[in-house]
Specification:
binds 1-O-pyrophosphono-5-O-phosphono-alpha-D-ribofuranose, alpha/beta, six-stranded mixed β-sheet, Rossmann fold
C-alpha cells in the first residue's frame, strides 16, 4: 500500500520506503561487524516487527535464526502499562545464545524494558535490541538500545508494521495518522 492509497487518513509523511531500506542496510552493516563469526538469534515481537524483521533478516549476510514472541500489555487503552503477558513464547532455548530483539518502535519503553529482563533471565549470552523507530519524548523508562533507525516525534504514526486498529500495517512507509481518523 502506498501513501496515495490512504492519503486522506495521513497528515504527514515521516519516512519513505527508500529511507527505511537505506537505514536498515546501515544497521545491518553494523550488526555484521558486531556479530562477525557468530550465529545471531533474531527475536521478533509480533505483530508490528514483521516488516522490519523481513527486511533486516534478508539484508544481513550473517547466518541467523529467527524466532517470534507475542506479548500484550495489561491495562486500559493504547498505553503500555509495563505489566506484560506472554501470548506466544519463543520455541528456542536461549541458553548461551546471542539474541537480538527486533522491534518496529519503542514508545514508552515499558514493553522492551520488561522483555530485556525476561530474555536475559533465560541464560542468553547476550541480549540486545534493534528498533527501527524510537520516540524519545514518550520514554517512561530508559532502555539500553544498541541499534536505532530513527528517532521520531511523539505523534501517532502508522505504516511499515505499525497499525491503528489493525489498519495501515501494510503501508510501505511511515506516516503520521490524521487526528480525524482516531478522534
Ligand atoms: C508496539 C511495539 C512495541 C510496543 C512499544 O506493539 O511493537 O512492542 O508497542 O510500546 P512501549 O514502548 O510503549 O512499550 P503493540 O502493543 O502496538 O502491538 P503490535 O506490535 O501487535 O501492533
Amino acid at each position: 500500500m502506498q501513501f496515495s492509497d490512504v492519503e486522506g487518513d495521513l497528515s504527514e509523511v515521516l519516512l519513505t520506503q527508500e529511507e527505511i531500506h537505506e537505514k536498515i542496510a546501515v544497521m545491518a552493516r553494523q550488526i555484521e561487524i558486531d556479530y562477525a563469526g557468530e550465529k545471531v538469534l533474531l527475536v521478533g515481537v509480533l505483530r508490528g516487527a514483521v516488516m522490519v524483521m523481513a527486511d533486516l533478516a534478508r539484508e544481513l549476510t550473517l547466518p541467523i535464526e529467527m524466532d517470534w514472541m507475542a506479548v500484550s500489555s495489561y491495562g486500559a487503552g493504547t498505553q503500555s502499562s509495563g505489566v506484560v503477558r506472554i501470548l506466544k513464547d519463543l520455541d528456542t532455548d536461549l541458553e548461551g545464545r546471542k539474541v537480538l530483539i527486533v522491534e518496529d518502535i519503542i514508545d514508552s519503553g515499558l514493553t522492551l524494558s520488561w522483555l530485556l529482563g525476561n530474555l536475559r533471565s533465560r541464560g542468553a549470552e547476550s541480549v540486545e535490541i534493534c528498533t527501527l523507530l524510537r520516540k524519545p519524548d514518550a520514554a517512561k523508562v530508559e532502555v539500553d538500545v544498541r541499534y536505532v533507525g530513527f528517532d521520531i516525534p511523539n505523534a501517532f504514526v502508522v505504516g511499515y508494521g505499525l497499525d491503528y486498529a489493525e489498519k495501515y500495517r501494510n503501508l510501505r512507509g511511515v506516516a503520521v495518522l490524521a487526528p480525524h481518523v482516531y478522534e
